[in-house]
Amino acid sequence: VDTSLMVSSSSSVSPVILSQDELKKIAAYKAVEFVESGMVVGLGTGSTAKHAVDKIAELLHSGKLKNIVGIPTSKITHEQAVSLGIPLSDLNKHPIVDLAIDGADEVDPQMNLVKGRGGSLLREKMVEAATKKFIVIVDESKLVNYIGGSGLAMPVEIVPFCWEFTLKRLEMLFIEAGCVGKLRTTGGGGDEEPYVTDNGNYIIDLYFKKDMGDLKDASDAILRLAGVVEHGMFIDMATTVIVAGKLGVSVTNK
Ligand code: 5RP
């Protein structure tokens, strides 16, 4: 654990209690240290990745980084990068990404991830599957003993056609793990509408009472269902995980 990034309230030893957002920023800035001039960089989505995109723009404008090309993983990150003046491209023109930086919702001890609670899992997976180095940036609240272990959602992007049917089939796959699926919605107070992804699809959030078993088997079973586009488990994809916690920041490489 590198404690050099801990902040002290004065020259005395009492540390400042950092907010979750400050921890996210510390992890993000640490990841940006790996970005070099001339790189094609996958730009992640979410409140943690946003700090990394801000920092890359700052370094570009100060001249410390040059000739960066960003590949955004969502419409919102695309908008952020455009507003900051980061030159952008896509996987058609740059099929090999040098480095991608993104947040995650869960990180297990093997560096497997859950992503997509922000809804961008498909584009994130496409960009992050095409990168040579994938740096995951999280605060310590995202660490879990096993995937699904936070009790929060594991998202699955599906086509809107007959979504209830697909939801039931997803639940049936994991009946022994007590899986319950919910269509993600926006709005409230009786005005809920299905949440629609950047790709025009819906999201089913899966909740597990128990470990879902072998992750590769679970992934294969989900992807075999017609109607499923992609799921939010990123198995064996991260090459580096940066965790910011109250005691400092750790960088773990695979
Ligand atoms: C979006 C994602 C995000 O990376 C994930 O939800 C983490 O978000 P945050 O950094 O806001 O906690 O996968 O689809």
TrEMBL record:
It holds the Pfam family Rib_5-P_isom_A. Keywords: Isomerase. This is ribose-5-phosphate isomerase. HAMAP family: Rib_5P_isom_A. Its EC number is 5.3.1.6. Belongs to the ribose 5-phosphate isomerase family. GO terms for biological process: pentose-phosphate shunt, non-oxidative branch. It catalyses: aldehydo-D-ribose 5-phosphate = D-ribulose 5-phosphate. InterPro entries: NagB/RpiA_transferase-like, Ribose-5P_isomerase, Ribose5P_isomerase_typA_subgr, Ribose5P_isomerase_type_A. Pathway: Carbohydrate degradation; pentose phosphate pathway; D-ribose 5-phosphate from D-ribulose 5-phosphate (non-oxidative stage): step 1/1.
